[in-house]
Amino acid sequence: MRQSNEATRSYSSATPLNSSPIHFTIFKLYMASWSTRVRRPTTIKQQPEPQSRAKWTSSLTKVLADLMVDQATTGNKLNNSFGKKAWECICNEFQKSTGLNWDKEQLKNRYTVLKKQFVMTKSLLDEPDFMWDEFTGAIVATNEAWDNYIAEHPDAEILRSTGCSLYKQLCTIFLENGTNDNYIEEGPELLYSTPQPLRTVQGKASTSESEEITEMADDRDRLQSNTASRNGTRKRGRRGIDDVLANALSEMAAASKLRALAVKQHNERYSISDCIKTLDEIEGIDEEIYYAALDLFDSRNARETFLSLKVDKRLTWLFGKCSILSGCL
């Protein structure tokens, strides 16, 4: 009886003294629901984050292409395509090399893009007026040849500005025999271009060397014919040969320094790093345009055009070129 009274007093202290039966019922339901919430804490289910969109650059594309070349050359390509095992190797090595956890579908989408690029490039190079420069990746032809071809194939406009630096790897990946031997022997002629400063330096060096060799030969002839000369004359002849050899070596060393300087100047002019630095200075550039521009800068012609434009014209030019690139790819 005493316990019952204590429970009643405890319950009465938890409820208003002037509560009506309706208020009492509402209060009772509220307390029941509150105790349930205390006993059963709510759990929030975390939704898996959607896979981020792959943003490809020229360097990432080259990593993928090199991995596919490795699989093709080791015999892991069947019926001109890669099997499940080959794709697993490509995905694993790509993640190790780049630190990006992109799945197989994302890599296969890029594979499809590269295949379209290969077909477009090979069709262009089948024409006799076009040549591929392996050194720069550019496709070389006259303006007239380009204009005539693009009039019939508008999608080839992107190749005119960017070329195809990975064409040799793409031949290995997509040709049926798995190599690019047919391309090298039967396809368009490879053009190995050399910068003009190098040709000038090499030409001067060759002329100087030939002159020194002629002088050395004349000295030897004079020494051989003058067998009756005194020892002093022979010594002077030997000193003459030594002087000629020293001069020739000095000329060759000077030519080598000029050649190295020309290569350095050629590599530093219109560099990718300069383009990226200039790109970072443009305000309000869209992220997709930014990454597309990185692919565009793989072509030296595109880098030269971009850096030569006025500051207020660069963004408009990028929009035009990158829209063509996205339309083709």
From TrEMBL:
Q: Where is this region: Disordered?
A: 201-236
Q: Which residues form the Myb/SANT-like domain?
A: 55-149
Pfam families hit by this protein: Myb_DNA-bind_3
Q: Which domain of life is it from?
A: Eukaryota
Protein name per the record: L10-interacting MYB domain-containing protein-like
The species is Heracleum sosnowskyi
Q: What is the lineage of its organism?
A: Eukaryota, Viridiplantae, Streptophyta, Embryophyta, Tracheophyta
